[in-house]
Specification:
The structure is a homodimer of 357-residue chains.
Chain A (H helix, E strand, L loop, with lengths): L21 H8 L3 H8 L7 H14 L5 H6 L6 E6 L7 H15 L2 E6 L6 H10 L4 E4 L7 H9 L4 E4 L9 E5 L1 H15 L4 E4 L6 H16 L9 E2 L5 H12 L7 E4 L2 H13 L9 E3 L5 H5 L6 E3 L2 H17 L11 E4 L2 E3 L11
Parallel strand pairs in A: 1-2, 1-3, 3-4, 4-5, 5-11, 6-7, 6-8, 8-9
Antiparallel strand pairs in A: 10-12
Chain A binds a DNA duplex (30 and 30 nucleotides) through helix 2 and helix 4.
Chain lengths: 357, 357
DNA sequence: AAAGAAAATGATACCGCTAACACGATTGAA
DNA sequence: TTCAATCGTGTTAGCGGTATCATTTTCTTT
């Protein structure tokens, strides 16, 4: 041993979690870490052959980049709020599942915020920016609140409306064709042979309601039938309103042979009331709903309804917002995009051909 | 200018997002960044006076530490899976909201995973560890699946059972006192004056079912009443089963004056059937449920039920798991903790005193 | 074919925070 | 009084990526 004093520092203890890093992949592929990063992020200027080698290495090692490091190293953080008004809304869980999937895909953080209208929209916007929220996801019914939309937009927050009937110019929107779906359902009832079809409208404050009613009316007209105003009764999407509405419909003479409710809760109410009137569903009365929420399969008979791909919608909206937040600095701010996803008519047990008396 | 060549590198462009850092706080407080970190993480060995100064600086600047940097700098990552079997279960959204709150508090990542029993439990465990899941949150009914629990535990994954009736020794558990809650509800019915109280049992595969039934029976015995086996009918938590069960109860002579269903879906079915029998709820028949899911407020009259603080439960479980994952390296592995949260009896419109005929 | 432009890749320095260690100031024990 | 243990705080070196610039290679162009 020489007399020179040893350097004081000993080799530091590794803190690393032992997980793979870009360096491991780089070694395996015989390139530099930077090239690996380029491949991962699909940045151009990588020879196809190199890219292939790196991709092979990634696959071989089953490498997953560390999101924390990623976001720390320059990629802007991205916190997206899901603003809801009703924590027990039936669609919320599907909503969350979809958003969460989108969030983890884009390495965004999902923050669930609640707003019941107690604060003013402006205060809410303030609260959100204080919480460093970068964008907001708006499920119904909040997606149709004009004052809210205005306030959030004024705070320069990118917005996404989900399942709205009236997309605004300054927000992204993902929805289904409510009018078309209601049209399809009505056609389905017509095809079964129904001619007197009652319709229970939805909450007039939600934009989708009018669209659904329009689809119903168009289908009747297309079939050469008159739209009888007596067969259209108001509702507000609650079970209770469905009870009142169906009472009005079922007391008519002649009674409608089918009732199309604007959502499943009201459809469930129709079934309950029909049973109280000693009517068999679907033998004496066909009932159908809209949304395919848990209620549709909770009751008996299970309700024929329109399925909205809620999880998908939330997923798409999430990706779109993350994109927008990350691209905010760049010059090419894309115009808001209004996307329409396909709905499905799911036939269950509450519909049948009209019964000849 | 001197002739020496300028260093090639120019000052780098700042990539920072302009957000505050520990350094800013340190400057403001006149200490080093490390001391700020110590204060934030409540590590000991900081003079109270220094701590106060730092805390003041944090408050003044409204500083929030960057979670990405935090986890990158050593704190072990923490990915927790919420494993569910039914994406549209009524409680799932509350569940997610609570878990998400816990996740953001502890800087853990929540991953939602679905399992319908298609894969073997062992394969599932494999899949989870492949996805680098560190711990698993189990809501009902999965929290009672013995094979699943065994497989996950064998993979060394910390587990938390939520709302289970039978906590296992090797998992954390957060639940309510199902037996006590059922007892309380039954006492409530007795206090109203009911003596013939029907009971609809829950799915025998879920451990909470037996507890609820036991609570019902104990309350009757406490009141000096016999437990009439004819008044206890089986169910499986579905609306459909509630329909069958209540048919059996309502056809008895004398008819029960109250029916206590083990969950809200079945209670809703009781109401529907009662209406079909031209019975007014609650005038002719008192109905109550359990869980306080969306169904309880969807139907009319709204159902008197037992509220489980699902969001809180998920929240607590989440914190516990994050703790456990982070403490995994340390020697003092705490014993699993079984926690019991308070329930609430929420009175709505489906109960009343028995009506004298 | 030489010079120049463009493309591919590498090297370096961070992002914001904290583990590990260093070090001066107290405090306590011998 | 001297030396060691302790405490409070500062210093250094990463964590695992990526922005930026440097360098090398390849392809044009005249």
């Amino acid at each position: 041993m020489d007399g020179a004093e040893q350097p004081k520092r000993r080799p530091r203890v590794r803190r690393g979690s032992g997980e793979l890093t870009v360096a491991d992949v780089a070694r395996q592929a015989g390139v530099s870490p930077m090239t690996v990063s380029r491949v991962i992020n699909r940045l151009g200027n990588v020879l196809p052959e190199t890219r292939a080698r790196v991709e092979a290495a990634i696959a071989a090692l089953d490498f997953v980049p560390n999101p924390a490091a990623r976001s720390l190293a320059g990629r802007p953080q991205c916190r997206i709020a899901l603003l809801h008004s009703n924590p027990s809304a039936a669609y919320l869980s599907e909503f969350l599942v979809g958003s969460l999937a989108g969030a983890s895909e884009t390495d965004a953080q999902l923050v669930v915020e609640h707003w019941d209208g107690g604060d003013s929209p402006v205060r809410l916007a303030q609260r959100l920016t204080d919480h460093r929220i970068d964008a907001v996801l708006l499920p119904p019914p909040l997606c149709d609140d004009a004052a809210l939309l205005a306030a959030l937009s004024a705070s320069n927050l990118p917005l996404a409306q989900i399942a709205t009937g009236a997309p605004v110019a300054f927000a992204d929107a993902v929805s289904i064709d409510d009018e078309g779906a209601a049209h399809a359902m009505t056609c389905h009832l017509l095809a079964l042979g129904h001619r007197r079809i009652g319709f229970i409208a939805g909450d007039p404050n939600q934009t989708a309601s009018a669209l659904r009613q329009a689809g119903y009316a168009r289908a009747l007209r297309d079939a050469g039938l008159d739209v009888d105003p007596d067969l259209i009764v108001p509702g507000d999407f609650t079970y209770r309103s469905g009870l009142d509405a169906s009472e009005r419909l079922l007391s008519q003479v002649p009674r409608p042979t089918a009732i199309f409710a604007s959502n499943d809760d009201m459809a469930a109410a129709v079934i309950a009331l029909a049973h109280r009137h000693r009517l068999d569903v679907p033998h004496d009365l066909t009932v159908c709903g809209f949304d395919d929420t848990a209620m549709a399969r909770a009751v008996w008979p299970e309700i024929t309804t329109i399925r909205q791909p809620v999880a998908d919608m939330a997923h798409r909206a999430m990706l779109r917002l993350a994109d927008r937040v990350r691209a905010a600095a760049s010059p090419d701010v894309r115009a808001p995009l209004h996307e329409e996803l396909a709905f499905t008519l799911v036939e269950r047990a509450s519909d049948a051909q009209p019964h000849e008396k």
